[in-house]
Amino acid sequence: MAGKPRSESLLGKHLLSTALTVLKSRGLPLRSANMLAPVRGVRVSSILPRLHPRLLPLRPYSTSDRTSDRVPTNDPSPPKPVQNVSNSNAVPISPQGLRDSDRPLQETPEDGERQRVMQAPNRRDVWSRSQQPRERAMSGPRFEQTIMEYQPQPEAAINLIHKQPVRWTKTRTVSCDGGGGPLGHPRIFINVDKPQVCWCTYCGLPFAHEHHRKLLQSFPSTSYPLEPLGDPAEVPESQRVSDEAFGQR
Q1: Distance separating alpha carbons of residues 241 and 84, to the nearest angstrom
Q2: Which of 72, 118, 132, 186 is most buried (most C-beta within 10 Å)?
Q3: Where are the domains of the chain?
Q4: pTM over the 0.85 mark
Q5: How many Cα atoms are found within 13 Å in the side-chain-facing hemisphere of 206?
Q6: pLDDT digits (tens, 9 = 90+) for 57-105
């Protein structure tokens, strides 16, 4: 117990000398002459408040603007959506530099507004929490006189994958690598012993056991087609971009 005040006094002197060195290097004025006066037997807790505010340790933290991610409240009278497409788009103009030069550039405001608010041609809403609505991005004077028909509009893969027919198997476990290659994914194994459509958690390809075919066919509807329907988005299992070992399917 006798050595405890001495150790605290030495620690206090060390802190005070360090603070004095930092203050001299930065050219900061001392708040008081007694601030750095070493007092023997004084506890460190009583010395630390005398230090300069810039020398006190601060807790590191980071902030970010969350105004755009706030959940909207229930508004009994929400504002009506304002049309962003200009009515002048309905006036035909000469399509200079386009392939179909015989067709004038013309688009009704209703069709342009419908394509502007669609997140994709085959999906209206967003499919990820971090995704922003397309109508919020394509707004303002820049897009008032834009023909939406000629803008890039890729279809949403989250809807295209549900057009792939179920791949039936006679084993309890199947493997999926997304076709391999740079566009594939790590090989995973999927259990198909349950009477349901089991999809890959990476790419979404559906699999099911042959033993459950009749049960699945008795359902009024399934998330994936049980048989090929001839949709252009269907990708046969044998279709591959290349035949080498690291090819793409």
Answers
A1: 42
A2: 118
A3: 3-55, 105-154, 156-249
A4: no
A5: 24
A6: 555 555 555 555 566 677 788 777 777 777 777 767 666 656 555 677 7
